[in-house]
Amino acid sequence: MAGTPILQTALKTIEVLEVLSRFGAQPASLGSIAEALGWSRAATHQYLTSLSRTGWVEQDQERRYRPGSGAVLFARSIVELDFLPHPITDAMDELVDVLKEPISFAVLHGEEAVIIERREPRRSLIHRNPERYLSLVSASGQVLLAYDRRAQALRTPQHEQLIAEVERTGHGEVRNKSWMGDDVEAIAVPVMRGDWCLGALSVIAPAGRMSLPDAAAELKSSAARIEQALTDPTP
């Protein structure tokens, strides 16, 4: 609402949680978190202490910090409820209209890519329930391996060439893959917020039915609009 003052403490609290999440499963020291935030150790410690008392942050025996039960339960509820910000779902609806193929949004969940939102055209791709969990060599999995910092521990030497190609082209790609008995092709692109990968936006279609370069261009254009909307959410 125009004219409503912004609570700087709320913005800073969110910033702390976002930075802490970027360390993945590894607990982070006070100094590391303060450096990532660009804050003093004293200010960082004050916010971490407040978050610790609410259960959103916890400390291990070495006094390093990591997301607490409150943050974990909140993140899990988002995955289970299939909730996404409207700029992402709006873009997915637009892509379905343009590409006439199923559009998905996947995030890294443990050691897999999991689809948390899917939009279908009136003409179904396949008359069966789509898979929710994807391998890390799927188009979406490739993107998450390349761009999601939490996936660094999942990378193997066998992934190096794949990741390099995704970073070169800006998208993940699968051609003529057998999926649930059908040959399909898929393209996925990252949706970023700063240097943080929010997830992979993808399209899938029977082999030969869509132009892969055109699909990649449409996905990248949509991802750019999503990123702009999430960076500047005010109308």
UniProtKB/TrEMBL annotation:
GO biological process per UniProt: negative regulation of DNA-templated transcription
GO molecular function annotations of the record: DNA binding; DNA-binding transcription factor activity
Matches recorded under PROSITE patterns: HTH_ICLR
Residue intervals passing through the bilayer: none
Domain HTH iclR-type: residue ranges: 7-69
InterPro entries, per the entry: GAF-like_dom_sf, HTH_MetabolicPath_Reg, Tscrpt_reg_IclR_N, WH-like_DNA-bd_sf, WH_DNA-bd_sf
Pfam families given in the database record: HTH_IclR
Keywords: Transcription, Transcription regulation
Protein name in the entry: HTH iclR-type domain-containing protein
